[in-house]
Design brief:
The chain is mainly α.
Length: 413
C-alpha cells in the first residue's frame, strides 16, 4: 500500500512538472518575442506573440491571461509603427490602435497591479507616438486618422494608472486639436463636442468660440452659431473678432438693426478699423441711407486705400444710382426733350463717380493685391465695360478701346 501511494505521488508530481513545463514553454514565447523585438527582428517577434495569445493553441492557456503577454504585444506593435522598414510597416494596418488595445488588456488582467508601473511608462510612450502620428496625418491631410490619434490620447488620459497621477488634469491642447481634426474631416458632430469642451475649460479664449460658431454654421445651425458668439463675447468683451463675427451673423440673417447696435460698439472699441466702416457702409446702404453709406465707405478707404471691398461696394452703389437715374430719364415724356437730356446727364454724373473705384478694383486684382473668385472679377469687368460703353459718345477713340479691352477680358475668362 505504501508503495502504491508513493507511485501515485510520483505520477502526480510528474503531471505537475509537465503542466508547469507547458506553461513555461508558452511564457517563454513571450520572453522570446520581447528579445526578438529588442534585436530588431519584429516579424519574428510578432509570430511568437501571436502564438502566445492564440486561443486555439492549448499551450497558450497560461500565457493568454498573463498581463506581461499583452504588454509585450503592445511594445511589438509600437515597434512596427516606429520602423522605417516597409516590410515591417506592412505587418499591421493600424499598429498604435493595436498597441493601445494590448496595454488596456494587460491592465484588465493585472488585478494585483504588479505591472502597473511598467504599463504607465509604456502608455506614456504611446501617447508620444500617437501625437507624432496625429501631426503626420494632419500634414498629409488624413484628418480622420489625426482625429482618431488625438482621441486615443484623450482616452489614455482617462486610464486609471495614468489618471491617478493627476486626477484633475485636462489636456486642453489635445481637445482643441481633436476639434480641429474633426472639423477638417467634416465630422461636425465631434467638432462641436470638442470645441465646446475647449470653451468650457477656457482654452484659446475667444478663438475657440469662433471655431465652434463656424462649425455650427457648417451644419446650417445659425441660431447656435449666434448664441455661441454672444456667449463668447459676454466672456471676452474685448475680443474684436467675436464682435465682428456677431455682426456678420446678424448681417447674414438680415437683422440689420441688431448688427448696427453691435457695430457702434465695435467702432468705439476700434475706431481705426477700416472693416468696421465698410460694414457700416453696407448696413447704411441696406437701410436706405445711401449718403451715409458713401461716407462710411470713404472713411474705410481713408484708413486703408487698398481695401477692395469698400472700393467695390462704393463703385457698385454709384453705378446702381446711375441705372436708377436712367430709369427716371426714360419716364420723361417724348415731347420734353430738354428735360430728358437733363435727367440723362445726371446718369453720367453717377457713372463718372463709379469709374475710379471700379478701376481701382481691377488694378488690385491685376497686381495680385486682392484675390477674388471668378464671379467677382467678372462683375468688375462687366461694370467697367458698361461704364466705358456709355462714355463712347464723349470720346470714341479712347473709350471704345477700353470697352473692347474689357470685352476681350470677359471672353477670355
Amino acid at each position: 500500500m505504501i508503495k502504491f501511494l508513493t507511485m501515485k505521488k510520483t505520477v502526480i508530481l510528474l503531471s505537475l512538472v509537465l503542466i508547469t513545463s507547458l506553461a513555461f514553454a508558452q511564457k517563454s514565447k513571450v520572453t522570446s518575442a520581447l528579445s526578438l523585438k529588442e534585436s530588431g527582428k519584429i516579424s519574428e517577434a510578432l509570430e511568437n506573440i501571436n502564438v502566445a495569445i492564440d486561443p486555439n493553441n492549448e499551450k497558450a492557456e497560461k500565457s493568454i491571461p498573463w498581463p506581461k503577454t499583452w504588454e509585450v504585444r503592445g511594445e511589438i506593435y509600437q515597434a512596427i509603427y516606429k520602423s522605417d522598414d516597409a516590410n515591417v510597416k506592412s505587418l499591421a494596418e493600424d499598429p498604435l490602435t493595436t498597441a493601445l488595445e494590448s496595454y488596456k488588456k494587460a491592465i484588465e488582467l493585472d488585478e494585483g497591479g504588479k505591472f502597473s508601473n511598467n504599463l504607465k511608462i509604456k502608455l506614456t510612450f504611446l501617447m508620444e507616438d500617437l501625437s507624432s502620428q496625429a501631426v503626420n496625418a494632419w500634414n498629409n491631410e488624413n484628418y480622420a486618422l489625426a482625429l482618431k490619434s488625438f482621441e486615443q490620447r484623450l482616452e489614455i488620459n482617462e486610464i486609471p494608472v495614468i489618471k491617478a497621477d493627476n486626477p484633475n488634469m485636462v489636456d486642453s491642447a489635445i481637445i482643441f486639436n481633436a476639434a480641429l481634426a474633426a472639423n477638417a474631416s467634416e465630422n461636425y458632430k465631434k467638432a462641436i463636442q470638442y470645441f465646446s469642451e475647449a470653451t468650457n475649460v477656457g482654452y484659446n479664449k475667444g478663438r475657440a468660440y469662433l471655431y465652434l460658431s463656424a462649425t455650427y454654421k457648417m451644419t446650417k445651425d445659425t441660431a447656435s452659431a449666434l448664441e455661441t458668439v454672444l456667449k463668447g463675447f459676454e466672456k471676452y468683451p474685448d475680443d474684436g473678432d467675436l464682435l465682428t463675427e456677431m455682426i456678420n451673423i446678424y448681417l447674414q440673417t438680415k437683422k440689420s438693426q441688431e448688427a448696427l447696435k453691435y457695430l457702434e460698439l465695435a467702432l468705439q472699441k476700434d475706431p481705426g478699423n477700416p472693416i468696421y466702416y465698410f460694414i457700416e457702409g453696407r448696413l447704411k446702404d441696406e437701410l436706405g441711407d445711401q449718403e451715409a453709406a458713401i461716407t462710411s465707405y470713404k472713411k474705410s478707404l481713408e484708413l486703408n486705400d487698398k481695401y477692395f471691398n469698400s472700393y467695390y461696394n462704393l463703385g457698385a452703389l454709384y453705378f446702381n444710382k446711375g441705372v436708377e437715374q436712367h430709369e427716371i430719364a426714360l419716364q420723361v415724356p417724348p415731347n420734353e426733350n430738354e428735360k430728358y437730356e437733363a435727367e440723362l446727364a445726371k446718369c453720367d454724373q453717377w457713372w463718372d463717380k463709379a469709374l475710379p473705384p471700379m478701376e481701382k478694383c481691377l488694378a488690385l486684382i491685376n497686381d495680385g493685391t486682392e484675390e477674388v473668385d471668378a464671379a467677382t472679377k467678372r462683375s468688375v469687368l462687366e461694370t467697367l465695360k458698361n461704364i466705358y460703353y456709355r462714355m463712347i459718345p464723349r470720346d470714341e477713340a479712347t473709350w471704345k478701346a477700353k470697352y473692347d479691352e474689357m470685352n476681350d477680358a470677359i471672353k477670355n475668362m
